[in-house]
Specification:
The chain is of the alpha/beta class and 308 residues long. Helix content is 43%, strand content 12%. It has two domains: 241 residues, Phosphoenolpyruvate-binding domains (TIM Barrel, Alpha-Beta Barrel), CATH 3.20.20; 40 residues, no CATH class. The protein has an eight-stranded parallel barrel, surrounded by seven helices. The longest helix has 17 residues. The protein binds 3-methyl-2-oxobutanoic acid. The site of 3-methyl-2-oxobutanoic acid (KIV) has 12 residues, from strand 6. 3-methyl-2-oxobutanoic acid binds next to strand 6.
């Protein structure tokens, strides 16, 4: 199978080869190509994805980066926060995404507890994402307290994306999911964190839940791209959680979420229709059933006749 072709899973299930799907001609997104985008002021489009089907759609549409975020703990697993997801779970979800993606850069979130204990363990876990799941980079939350770790992971040839501002793994320290950087002192801290992460080798930084003005100042000061979520339009790129933008969540969205589709409503309607069809025996129809050959059917009927 060439790098630009796939078989469809439906055809595989039916035991037939499907026509290969061609991917567009656009080149593979890489860490250097994202830096080029910042230089040429082209916005970077990032979204989360956690499974083969949605990652494949994201890749076919041509977004730059797929983040296998630890937000999966909430939107895929139904947890209250991101803290419980494990390395093994993150690796499992990343593998599914990896199998779907040809063009986008695949970045995996390092889960809570996988890099906070000690740096050796952090480096070893970052390497697992590349070796065992095919990630091309990892994302780590935190500022100056992470710079030694970032240096070591980058030194082990794993690109690192930083994450500052509202860092969900710090939910207990922050006392909830609150906008960060709202005082002059906090702004200065965040700015220093961003500069330190750039200096230690991060190739991009997610800025989450910070005032637009602060995100803009940091974006202008850094050579590496900033990717905003709830950080206003002046960042070099934007990221949204797929389930938020598709309305596959069950509570009111945050202010910064724009809902691009109501997939939840489409699924509810389709499932309701399916349930009705099954209950009224409208599904499956004769045309949706397999049949014996005419010859075999006649033999079966004559056997049935003899038995009767
Ligand atoms: O886990 C996640 O999805 C993230 C993004 C919101 C940036 O960290």
């Amino acid at each position: 199978m060439s790098l630009t072709t796939f078989r469809t899973s439906g055809a595989d299930r039916a035991g037939k080869d499907a026509a290969p799907l061609e991917r567009g001609p656009s080149p593979k997104v890489t860490v250097p190509s994202l830096l080029d985008k910042k230089l040429s002021r082209q916005p970077i489009a990032v979204v989360t994805a956690y499974d083969y089907a949605s990652a494949r759609l994201v890749d076919e549409v041509g977004l730059d980066v797929i983040l296998v975020g630890d937000s999966l703990a909430m939107v895929m697993q139904g947890h209250e926060n991101t803290l419980s997801v494990t390395m093994d779970e993150m690796l499992l979800y990343t593998r599914g995404v990896r199998r779907a993606v040809r063009r986008a850069l695949v970045v995996s979130d390092m889960p809570f507890g996988s890099y906070q204990v000690d740096e050796r363990e952090g480096v070893a876990n970052a390497l697992r994402f590349v070796k065992e799941a095919g990630a091309e980079a990892v994302k780590i939350e935190g500022g100056r307290q992470r710079t030694d770790l970032v240096r070591r992971i980058v030194g082990a040839e794993v690109p690192v994306m930083g994450h500052l501002g509202l860092t969900p793994q710090s939910v207990h320290r922050m006392g909830g999911y609150k906008v960060q950087g709202k005082t002059l002192a906090a702004m200065e801290e965040l700015r220093a964190d961003a500069l330190a992460l750039e200096d230690s080798g991060c190739f991009a930084i997610v800025l989450e839940g910070v005032p637009r003005e602060l995100a803009r100042m940091i974006t202008e000061e850094l050579r590496i791209p900033t990717i905003g979520i709830g950080a206003g339009p002046d960042c070099d790129g934007q990221v949204l959680v797929l389930h938020d933008m598709m309305t596959m969540t069950f509570s009111a969205p945050a202010k910064f979420v724009r809902r691009y589709a109501d997939v939840g409503a489409v699924m509810r309607e389709a499932l309701g229709e399916y349930k009705r069809d099954v209950e009224t025996r409208q599904f499956p129809s004769d045309a949706e059933s397999y049949h014996l050959s005419k010859e075999l059917r006649e033999r079966m009927e004559s056997l049935a006749g003899r038995a009767g």
